[in-house]
Amino acid sequence: MKMMAAQKTLLLLCVGVSLAHDFITPDQLKNIEERLTATEETLKELKRENEALRTFTKASSDKIESIQAENKAKKIAFSAGLLAPGSQNFGPFDSRKTLVYKKIFTNTQNAYDPNTGKFTAPVNGVYFFRFYAHAHPFNQMAVSLHKNDQIQCSVFVLKPETNADGSNGVVLSLQKGDEVYTQLWENSWVFDDESSHTSFSGFLLFPSTSIHHSNLLPAHQTHSIFLQYSQICKTWKLHIKLAQVVPLYLVVPELSLL
User: Fold this and answer.
1) d(CA 60, CA 184)
2) pLDDT tens, position by position, 199-217
3) Distance in angstroms (rounded) separating the CA atoms of residues 155 and 94
4) Mean pLDDT computed over 168-195
């Protein structure tokens, strides 16, 4: 059976060649072969450029996802009072103590931790912070705002004769993971009650742009890819004309994969 099938196939090929010779001259056949060879080279080039375009598309997709994540992260804000119920003096202490604000007004994305009193930046950006401190008469009041371990700004009242309030604010550029908090100085007091005289607030003004260049193709390589892609499109217009003479996918199987 296999021998008969082979014989039939050979017979069909002979008939096909005979018919081709009736309609295609040797020069035309040679021209077709040359074009087919050029087509094979173009296919190889197409595969290479397709891989480059796939890499470029992946990098662009990653960047879009990064931008979307940053836009989602723009909604960052918190505000808290030092004491939730009742009234109380805090201090004095022999060393500086981080103030832990328990009365939460706002805490989007839970960037402020009511257990530690620290705000941790969830994204790179520029943030605004403000804090208030209240002191009773004859008690020294001194509070500083810190970025990580560095003092950024402070308020200070030395034993006022009446109740006193202090307030300060600052705009900080933060990296993701930076911590911001307030500390009560040694030998100092602050007071708070249900009116929240002593409080701490902050919010994101705008995120910082962070483009990971390692994930993107160089500008000259991107430009080269688009130029080559444009040339390939022009080349394929010629191959379409050739396909009208001989179906290319019968000769070049790779075409059926595109």
Assistant:
1) 48
2) 999 999 999 865 444 444 4
3) 19
4) 94
- This prediction's pTM: 0.56
Q: What is the 3-state secondary structure (H, E, C) of the chain?
A: CHHHHHHHHHHHHHHHHHHHHHHCCHHHHHHHHHHHHHHHHHHHHHHHHHHHHHHHHHHHHHHHHHHHHHHHCCCCEEEEECCCCCCEEECCCCCCEECCCCEEEEEHHHCEECCCCEEECCCCEEEEEEEEEEECCCCCEEEEEEECCEEEEEEEECCCCCCEEEEEEEEEEECCCCEEEEEECCCCCEEECCCCCCEEEEEEEEECCCCCHHHCCCHHHHHHHHHHHHHHHHHHHHHHHHHCCCCHHHHCHHHHHC
